[in-house]
Queue: 2 jobs
Job 1
Amino acid sequence: MPESVKNSGKVAWRCPSNIALIKYWGKHGDQLPNNASISITLQNAFTETIVTFEFDESINNIEVIFEFGQQRNESFESRVNRFLLRIQPQMPFLRHLRINIESKNNFPHSAGIASSASGFGSLALCICSIEELLFGQISGFLDFRQKASYLARIGSGSACRSIYGGFSIWGQNSTLPESSDVYAVDINHHIHPVFQDIQDSILLVSSEKKQVSSSDGHALMEHHAYARIRYQLAESKLQELITALQTGDMEQFILITESEAVSLHALMMLSESNYILLKPNTLAIIEKVQRFRAEHKLPMCFTLDAGPNIHLLYPESVREEVQNFINDELLQHCEHKQWIHDRIGKGPVKLDIA
Ligand code: PMV
């Protein structure tokens, strides 16, 4: 370790969640995706993580305390411990660390916002900052963000896309040669201005615990009867979406985004032990969104994560009309009339906690 660098300290990052347009569903090996995915990183829904660390060569197994929302959380702690063990080949110094992790989300747990993406994103960024503080540089990768994205992926696949603001892609594909299966890349330089201020209104249909987790859902893709055709379709839809994003083709964007959302849920329904995460109110909202779009010719569409809540996407220019529509017609289908307003964001921020 160079003499000028610290062997103890504190680092902190805020990392937002993301919503996928082309969905990652099915994986292999060390959390590698079976198809490439594209997402939008949000602005308002984020996790903040503070890591206090001490480097001590006399210890040989990392010592971790994990607090979530100011309370020690042992089930998260064991997931974080597994994650820290799995990233040790890239971060061998970790075994000589004593760390205290304090993490908090600024959005409700069951809101249909991927908290594992923002959580592992912020933790991976903190780990990279610790490496930088201890050794003065980031080893083995092109830059800081690429390494953080690589590490975040190991915690939760979709987390690797949250390391970048705006649009990012994860998964090797023929359209973008710079893409990779092991980290996400920033694709904002390909994006037409009409998509650069996309809004995301998250309509909370149900906060019930999901009957099948995302990791079980990924596993069900392994022997899925439609797996091969799914991966072929995902690749061609990804190519079409990239073209639409480059040329500003809103109609195609809407078509592909909605088709991907329902494909994800169709895969769940067609899996060996079939299951349905959509609720009657999800379908009621989808029907109204499609009808309102046809009648008012508004650029607006829905997408879904692995749950019943709706993400309504639209450009800022129609924000007022869409939000009036939400208030007048959609809130009656939401649990306790709840919705969260978000938008495309600038990506993670390093927090000054000195
Ligand atoms: O990153 P995971 O393992 O939580 O899986 C995320 C899967 C989806 O959210 C349904 C799709 C995606 O690409 O984000």
Job 2
Amino acid sequence: MTTKEILSYLQNEVSTTDFERYLKQLVYKKSSSNDDIAVFEVHNRFVANYIKTKYKAILQEIFEKFSDTKPSIEIKIAGERRRSKKEIMDEKSMFTTSENTILNQSYTFESFVVGNSNKMAYTASKAVAAKPGVQYNPLFIYGGTGLGKTHLLQAIGNDAIDKNKNVIYVTVEQFMNDFLFSIKNKNMDHFRGKYRKCDLLLIDDIQFLSGKESTQEEFFHTFNELHNNKKQIVLTSDKLPSQIGGLEERLKSRFEHGLKSHIQIPELETKIAIIEKKSELNGIVLTREIIEYIATHLDNSVREIEGVLIDINARGNLLGHEISLEMVKNLLKEKIKDTKENIKLPDIINIVANELNIKPSDLRSSKRTKNVVDGRRTVIYLARELTHNSMPDIAKFLGMKDHSSVSKNISKANELIEKDEDFRLKLEHLKNKIINKEYQN
Ligand code: ADP
Ligand code: MG
């Protein structure tokens, strides 16, 4: 295995942000003495810790897959010397706090492809970056995974930084860690000074505030302070404020108060434009035929499209294969097969139940209330489309007598897809969640 091979595999498996920020730095050092340890180097401890916590398993998996070994993974700091206590403390706080907000430089408005599916969110984001705190406060961007929420949020940040604004970009998780760290170290003044004095506060994936009561409390005050001082707040979420369970009413109503902007799954033209742009940026040359093939066969998320382009690039530029329509067709076939093998019936039940506010057990019962019947139909349709299960398998899993009712439900769903736009959009949204395995139980 070489560093290059490992990186090209990782690039496919992890988010672009993480890859660009952290994993790209990895250098694989062959361990001379034994096969039980694989040593990697990076340049700083923060990155090493991050990779260790989040990606150890994937790194191991790579070795298992390609060299049939399962070494333990060690991540070292290149050229490390003994560090002073102060340095160690500083880095500890850096890891737990987010003083070091780094924005991905490539997430800009220029690199964002605008189409009907995201025009509103894009326009609102531009407006907010141009005049923070004046219009649309808060701006609440919501939509499924991999559709560009983080990209837009960071584009606002990059733009505002260029205008010398004081910007904080954090995920809810970072905000929470920062908060807990400050409590522990009795350093709340510092925390408040930081979060309440910025010009723009950009918080990613706000749905994860769910159930975090003390963090919600603190965030409520942060929000009010910023809002009263006409400072801009931008939030992203995978769902509407009203749909986030375990979130205080007063926060919901604050979030509802500004502008809510939905990013949808891109329509064909936008997908084509995105593929053109991304392949150009990555120096991949694709024929019109191939571009259209990818656009018509991937309908899940932009992240998925990027993943495919990276694969094509790996096979084409790195392995020297010709990039033909045939090769792309095979590659997509493999991907779809892998996805199907990874999705299990309980995943579908749980995600549908969560999104539609139905109990998972009701979906597997014989209950006949309208929402349960509709929900069950949705589960059946998605199970057929997204997994390899046969109709009898699905019937059995849902506790139905035989597969004829499964087949009736599928016909009915197909009928609805034709004439009911809402139903179709809802299915797409659920598909996106299931494929991205967003469990929330
Ligand atoms: P989300 O935060 O909604 O899950 P991201 O913002 O992380 O999604 O987007 C996933 C990937 O897709 C990113 O690499 C992003 O640059 C890209 N992407 C999404 N939408 C667009 C778009 N309209 N134009 C260009 N790139 C996009
Ligand atoms: Mg995101």
